[in-house]
Design brief:
Layout lengths: L1 H22 L4 H5 L5 H8 L1 H9 L10 H11 L21 E3 L41 E3 L9 H14 L2 E3 L14 E6 L15 H9 L3 E7 L11 E2 L6 H7 L7 E2 L10 H15 L3 E6 L4 H11 L7 E5 L10 H6 L4 H14 L7 E5 L5 H10 L3 E4 L1 H6 L22 H4 L4 H26 L12 E4 L5 E3 H4 L11 H14 L4
Parallel strand pairs: 2-11, 3-4, 4-5, 5-8, 8-9, 9-10, 10-11
Antiparallel strand pairs: 1-12, 6-7, 12-13
């Protein structure tokens, strides 16, 4: 009797769904195939998950393959991150694949790449060439990239910041402002976007006094002015009203519950000349190094910036070049797929612009855009990067499963959502140790690669030490592919000597 009742209820439910499907006019599929048509939508919903675990090979999936994610997960958990039985990459045929050329003999003493505490400092003093009052040498050449509270949950930001503190790295706030979750011990790079969140007037214009108050309230080491980012270059950010809680509204200085749209361009300056005035104002008022972050499109901006900096009276302390591979910001498909240059192409053009004028030792070059994998990071250093920032890789280290639901507020792991039920699943204490382990492992891997090339630091890897596959059975060096001249991508003699001495001095302590 009980079974019959259950069957009757189920049949009634199916009949109701069938009747609804037959009369609704929104979906032709359901009108023609009532009830069973829902299976198509269910499969479509879980399509990314099915492809991850069933359909694609270990090297096929994008933006991060299964092998890449597995390496990050294992590194974060301090598990065995080695791979056995040879590579799955079709090594002779994968167009654009980078191959690092190992050396038989080393140029000098090499650090212990198996030591998790082995130092990997920046090769340059941030703000040093321009004499900033609070210039410093970053202790880590690997740092956490810009991801705002609002886009990410408070639990996720807390885990990342605590992880940054444990690993001795810096943590970029993103343009959403400095939140309480950024105040867990990690050194801060404060990003200022076009919305001036946290340092704005009611009309959205920039407020210097509020900026100074924010800087004084936390361990802010540098200021980054965001001009654009790889995920949505030339497009202002959008935080849906559903994500704009009262807490986020208070931090950003915006109305709660309403869509928060960032302008596509800054109002505090309108050209390169006035931008440099703005940079010098911030540096003078705070004493901090000040730089810019941008994806790379037309080159006129960079050429004018380098030309004005050649005079020596004004300039940025660092340039963060973001590749179009960047992806932590939700964006229209056209922007994600087809606006701005990929990292290697964009970075090499920017670096070359400054190299032509002999300015590369006068500022720090930072790369971002899927550089949290050792092979990509090695290429970035060879092209002239002094530091790299990691974003999605850091998200993966705290549990991201690449469900690609960041823009829906339904992130299943509680990272890219403000839903209290989902965020409760993310434990910042345990996840922070995973972030730290991942960051340390990435630095160790870079030291291993450097040692294979015969140098003590990835900053010494040159554009001739890596080749890029260019069609079947042919390869060209990075220098050849990107038109580098002799010495480009390399540290100047004085900087190289300083870095060598620094590494040598650190050796006995280990």
């Amino acid at each position: 009797m009980h079974v019959r009742r259950i069957g009757a209820v189920a049949a009634a439910a199916v009949a109701v769904v069938a009747a609804r499907d037959l009369v609704q006019k929104r979906h032709a599929l359901l009108r023609n195939f009532p009830v069973i048509g829902h299976a198509r939508y269910a499969l479509e919903t879980i399509g990314p998950e099915l492809r991850q675990y069933i359909v694609t090979s270990n090297e096929e999936e994008r933006p991060f393959s299964r092998d890449q994610r597995s390496w990050i997960y294992a590194s974060a958990k301090e598990e065995n991150n080695y791979f056995g039985f040879g590579t799955e990459v079709d090594v002779e045929h994968v167009q654009g694949h980078a191959y690092i050329k190992q050396r038989t003999f080393a140029a000098g003493a090499l650090p212990d790449a198996h030591d998790p505490q082995a130092p990997l400092p920046s090769a340059k003093v941030l703000g040093g060439p321009r004499g900033r009052a609070k210039a410093f040498r970053p202790a880590s050449a690997v740092n956490i990239s810009a991801m705002s509270f609002g886009s990410l949950s408070g639990a996720a930001i807390t885990a990342l910041n605590k992880g940054a503190a444990l690993a001795g790295t810096m943590h970029n706030t993103g343009e959403g402002g400095l939140s309480p979750y950024h105040r867990n011990g990690g050194d801060i790079v404060l990003q200022i976007g076009t919305g001036y969140f946290g340092c704005r007037n009611e009309d959205g214009s920039f407020n210097l006094d509020r900026l100074k108050d924010v800087v004084a309230s936390a361990p802010v080491r540098a200021i980054e002015i965001k001009l654009s980012q790889g995920a949505k270059p030339g497009l202002g950010g959008m935080l849906p009203g559903a994500k704009v809680t009262s807490e986020i509204a208070a931090i950003r200085g915006i109305p709660a519950g309403k869509d928060c749209a960032s302008p596509s361009r800054h109002s505090a300056f309108g050209d390169v000349d006035s931008m440099l005035d703005f940079v010098e104002l911030l540096a003078a008022e705070t004493g901090l190094p000040v730089g810019v972050k941008s994806a790379v499109g037309e080159m006129g901006f960079w050429q004018e910036l380098a030309t004005l900096m050649e005079r020596g009276d004004r300039g940025v302390d660092f340039v963060t070049v973001d590749g179009s591979e960047g992806g932590t910001g939700a964006a229209p498909r056209i922007f994600a797929d087809s606006v701005s240059l990929p990292f290697r192409m964009g970075f090499s053009r920017v670096y070359g612009t400054f190299a032509e004028l002999g300015l590369t030792d006068q500022l720090t070059f930072i790369g971002s855009g899927k550089l949290g994998l050792p092979e990509n990071a090695a290429v970035a250093f060879a092209l002239g990067a002094d530091m790299i920032n990691v974003a999605r890789e850091a998200m993966l280290s705290i549990g991201c499963i690449q469900s690609q639901k960041c823009h829906t507020d339904k992130c299943p792991t509680g990272i890219a959502t403000q839903n209290p039920w989902l965020t409760r699943g993310l434990d910042p204490a345990s996840k922070s140790t995973r972030t730290a382990a991942y960051l340390r492992t990435l630095r160790k891997e870079l030291l291993k690669v450097s040692g294979a090339v015969g140098v003590a630091h990835p900053g010494f890897i040159t554009a001739d030490d890596i080749e890029i596959l260019n069609g079947d059975y042919e390869a060209r060096t990075l220098a050849g592919v990107y038109g580098y001249k002799d010495g480009w991508g390399e540290l100047g003699p004085q900087l190289a000597d300083e870095l060598t001495a620094l590494l040598a001095a650190a050796e006995p302590s280990r």
